[in-house]
Each structure stands twice: as structure tokens, then as C-alpha cells.
Task: inverse folding
């Protein structure tokens, strides 16, 4: 993780999270945490009821299904609704570390006073891989589908069974990846939005031999400018991206057990040998080696 005073950069593929504290809480109505700063990061998920979050100068009203994120050095205050019961999942964690040993955050939590309360929160920029530009992780996302991913972390922390630290690391990594995927789906970056018609077309027809001109026309841009913004959004040329998506589709089809000749034809390869050569160049494996079993016999 690369760090500056107000911006921290995370490589999603390299995270090895450590869970420091996890609970399901139903505090008294009108309960308040803060203003404060914490030594780690926190995810807060609203199960039922409502809560108000002050995050530096920003203000959010949280409802069921909302997930809030903030990191160390980010002043915040949480207040549950005064007239109804509120249920929350709360997880304190670090994005990466060595041995997954929990360090309870309580001794290092500090109160904020005066102008400290309005300091802007630290921004976490996530490099999600596949060549795209890093994204700034949102303060709040509405993501009800994440709720089941919180539960096993809460359970492991509460039960403290053998290997719980390792189990929580795996579950937490899955939760963080799901959170980033949700944001990418809900709030794509400006470059991704501009080339979205091309990305959708490639996803629908990965076996088609798309030209850069065809894809540019779908987005309404000159091919030269389109190629620039496409690379900005994906990290690849249109041809390189199309090939990557075609190989990804081939992997999915291979794992279904479909015959290699049929997969090659479905993905626009007139020659199965050319398909196998392209697949090996991309993955280092033949199609049969990838799925760990030989081609079925007629």
C-alpha cells in the first residue's frame, strides 16, 4: 500500500486483510460514536433502522443496505436514529499485513475537537487490475447484496475458533473485492462511461472480429480519439481488450466441458489449431491442460 498524507493507494490483487474487530451491534436509540479518528479502516453496514454519518465535512443519512467506509485519519461521527432501533455490522480492518493477528483498535481511537472534525477524509484509491485506472473508493454505497458476506466474518470473530484469523482474512478479501466490484458496476469512471457501448458489445459478442472503427462508431467518436479513451478506461487497445475477453470466455466454456472444436467456432475461430495456439500464447496452457482433462471422445 502506497501512502501520502490524504491519499492511500491499494492494489486489489495484493490485499491480505487483517480483521481487528467485528460485531453485530444494536445500540440504544440515539447512540453516538465520535467525533473520533481510528487507527485502522472500518466498514459499517446498516441492517435495519437508520444512522447519520458525519465524515469530515460530508454528511450522509444511512438506511438499510447502505455500507459506509472510512480509514485511519478520517474524522467521523455516527449517530443512530433516536426514535427507532438500529442494527449494524461493524468491521475494523487493515487492507494488508503479514501474519493475520488482530489488534483491537480501542486503545488507539482518538477524539476529534474543533476544526479537526471538518478535516477531509483520507481518500483510498483502488487499483482494481486489468489495466483500468484506479478508482476512489466511495464513502457510502447502497449494496444490500453484501450483507451475507459480513456474516461469516462476524461469526468467526465472535466464536474465535481454531484458524479464525486465517478464515477472516479470506472472508474479508472476498468482501472487499465484492465492494469494489459493486462500485465499478454502479459508478464507473468517466472514461469507462464513454466507451460503455463498446464494452457492452464486446461482452455480448466476444467471438466477433470487432474493428476499432466499428467500436468507435458505437460510441460516437473518431477512431483515433476512441482508441485513446479506450486505453485510458481499460489499459488495453481495443484489439487487446477484445482478445482478453475472448480468452476469458474460452476459459468459462472450457470449464463447462464443451468440446474444444465447438468452443473455437463459437468464439470466431475458423481453425481449432489457431484457437489452441492463441489460448496457449495467452495462458501458457493448451485448452485441454487448462481444464485438467482430455478432450472427450466421440
Result:
Amino acid at each position: 500500500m502506497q501512502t501520502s498524507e490524504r491519499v492511500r493507494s491499494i492494489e486489489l490483487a495484493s490485499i491480505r486483510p487483517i480483521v481487528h474487530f467485528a460485531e453485530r451491534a444494536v445500540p440504544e436509540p440515539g447512540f453516538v460514536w465520535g467525533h473520533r479518528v481510528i487507527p485502522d479502516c472500518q466498514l459499517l453496514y446498516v441492517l435495519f433502522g437508520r444512522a447519520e454519518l458525519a465524515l469530515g465535512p460530508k454528511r450522509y443519512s444511512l438506511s438499510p443496505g447502505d455500507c459506509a467506509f472510512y480509514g485511519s485519519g478520517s474524522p467521523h461521527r455516527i449517530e443512530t436514529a433516536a426514535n427507532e432501533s438500529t442494527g449494524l455490522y461493524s468491521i475494523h480492518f487493515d487492507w494488508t499485513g503479514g501474519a493475520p493477528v488482530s489488534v483491537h483498535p480501542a486503545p488507539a481511537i482518538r477524539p476529534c475537537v474543533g476544526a479537526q472534525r471538518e478535516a477531509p477524509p483520507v481518500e483510498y484509491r483502488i487499483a482494481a487490475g486489468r489495466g483500468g485506472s484506479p478508482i476512489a473508493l466511495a464513502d457510502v454505497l447502497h449494496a444490500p447484496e453484501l450483507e451475507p458476506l459480513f456474516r461469516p466474518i462476524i461469526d468467526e470473530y465472535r466464536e474465535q475458533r481454531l484458524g479464525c484469523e486465517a478464515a477472516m482474512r479470506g472472508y474479508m478479501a472476498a468482501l472487499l473485492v465484492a465492494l469494489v466490484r459493486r462500485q465499478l458496476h454502479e459508478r464507473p469512471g468517466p472514461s469507462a462511461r464513454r466507451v460503455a457501448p463498446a464494452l457492452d458489445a464486446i461482452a455480448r459478442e466476444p467471438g466477433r472480429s470487432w474493428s476499432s472503427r466499428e467500436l468507435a462508431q458505437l460510441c460516437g467518436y473518431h477512431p483515433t480519439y476512441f482508441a485513446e479513451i479506450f486505453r485510458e478506461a481499460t489499459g488495453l487497445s481495443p484489439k487487446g481488450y477484445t482478445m482478453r475477453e475472448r480468452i476469458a470466455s474460452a476459459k468459462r466454456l472450457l470449464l463447462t466441458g464443451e468440446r474444444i472444436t465447438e468452443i473455437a467456432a463459437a468464439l470466431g475461430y475458423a481453425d481449432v489449431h489457431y484457437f489452441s495456439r492463441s489460448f496457449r500464447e495467452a495462458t501458457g496452457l493448451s485448452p485441454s491442460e487448462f481444464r485438467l482433462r482430455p478432450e472427450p471422445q466421440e
